[in-house]
Automatic annotation (TrEMBL):
This is Transcriptional regulator. The keyword ATP-binding does not apply. The keyword S-adenosyl-L-methionine does not apply. Belongs to the FrmR/RcnR family. GO terms for biological process: negative regulation of DNA-templated transcription. GO terms for molecular function: DNA binding; metal ion binding. PANTHER family: TRANSCRIPTIONAL REPRESSOR FRMR, TRANSCRIPTIONAL REPRESSOR FRMR-RELATED. Keywords: Plasmid.
Length: 92
């Protein structure tokens, strides 16, 4: 079972909080609030997204890469290479 299915409710709760934060950004823009308020809302949302990414990435590494490395040590596409690819995609 995939970790995103196993932890589905916990992840959905995080996503719903992020959705609320994005909606707060939209409301702030519509209400023409100051840039300081908007920036604060954006950084809060960014922090929540980074937190979600960290949880999913950590579970992905533990579930699919570390354990897979031992099971499929002969595979051409190693866990190390997969991890590097994931990290590179994050910084694009």
């Amino acid at each position: 079972m995939s970790h995103t299915i196993r932890d589905k409710q916990k992840l959905l709760n995080r996503v719903r909080r992020i959705k609320g934060q994005v909606e707060a950004i939209e409301r702030a823009l519509v209400d023409e609030r100051g840039c300081n308020d908007v920036l604060q809302l954006i950084t809060s949302c960014r922090g929540a997204m980074n937190g979600l990414l960290a949880v999913v990435l950590e579970d992905h590494i533990r579930t699919h890469l570390v354990d897979a490395e031992h099971e499929h040590a002969h595979d051409e596409w190693s866990a190390t290479e997969q991890l590097i690819e994931v990290v590179h995609s994050y910084f694009k």
